[in-house]
Amino acid sequence: xxxxxxxxxxxxxxxxxxxxxxxKARKVHVPVQYKAMSEPxxxxxxxxxxxxxxxxxxxxxxxxxxx
Length: 67
Prior knowledge:
The protein has three helices and no strands.
């Protein structure tokens, strides 16, 4: 769970890195290989994006109370 804006920025950077990995992998792997290697990365990407949305959906006062 993201607890502050610093962690939010780290999560956003992680999302960007995962997206770049997938973008590059799509160009060099055949579809079967890409599907196998991308599934865990896509799951991680989805989880991180969900955490970002959860953090951004709360007002700052709600976030502080949740900690």
